[in-house]
Design goal:
Number of domains: 2
Oligomer: single chain
Order of helices and strands: HHEEEHHEEEHHE
Strand content: 15-25%
Largest sheet: 4 strands, antiparallel
Radius of gyration: 25 Å
Structural class: alpha+beta
Helix content: 40-55%
Strand order of the largest sheet: 6-5-4-7
Length: 192
């Protein structure tokens, strides 16, 4: 009887390579800073041309599967899976192309939550709603936390932080005068 000593590597580990290299981006791609998109699973960054290359790779794999032996049941299964993958990748690319990169909110609702001493923000957009944009945000009712949002890479988050700051100043003014401070404030498109 032979006993293998040491660490044995399987064939799948050799074929897998790095996680970034072979990630299928099953959770799609999310808009990131600048003109790039990020995979939430592996962290890979791609611009729109990189996404198009990713789609072309799937199309090439699908097209190369056709010369397989006709009538082979396994070949049919492989071709069907490759067609589905091309469809999924194209759908991701079309969703990203339809996102206006400078989505402007139609309305921002800022609500003060006294129990947690924070501001809950809801951000509303015109229909059709852009894909992958910030829709809600929570920030502590402290100057430091509010001002920290001003350095965020997302322009909608920065705009929301300005409105939270404005509402925070208004609430402080009411509190200084001894009057009850408003619990909510709506900022419409003309105020943004």
């Amino acid at each position: 009887m032979r006993v293998a000593r040491g660490e044995e590597t399987g064939t799948i580990q050799v074929d897998m390579g790095s996680a970034t290299e072979n990630c299928l981006h099953l959770w799609g791609l999310r808009p990131s800073a600048g003109p790039e998109y990020r995979c939430p699973a592996c962290g890979e960054m791609m611009d729109l041309e990189g996404v198009a290359r990713w789609v072309r790779d799937a199309e090439r794999a699908r097209d190369e599967s056709y010369p397989l032996v006709e009538g082979d049941g396994f070949g049919d299964i492989v071709r069907e899976e490759l067609r589905r993958e091309v469809y999924r990748r194209r759908r991701v690319m079309y969703d990203l192309q339809s996102v206006p990169r400078a989505a402007r909110p139609e309305m921002i609702l800022v609500v003060y939550d006294g129990r947690s001493a924070s501001y809950e923000c809801r951000i509303f957009y015109k229909e059709p709603r852009p894909v992958g944009v910030v829709e809600q945000l929570s920030v502590e009712a402290k100057w430091r936390a509010i001002l920290d949002l001003r350095t965020n890479s997302d322009p909608v988050v920065r705009l929301t932080s300005e409105k939270v700051e404005e509402f925070h100043v208004l609430r402080r003014k009411f509190a200084d005068e001894g009057a009850p401070a408003p619990a909510r404030r709506v900022f419409y498109a003309n105020e943004l």
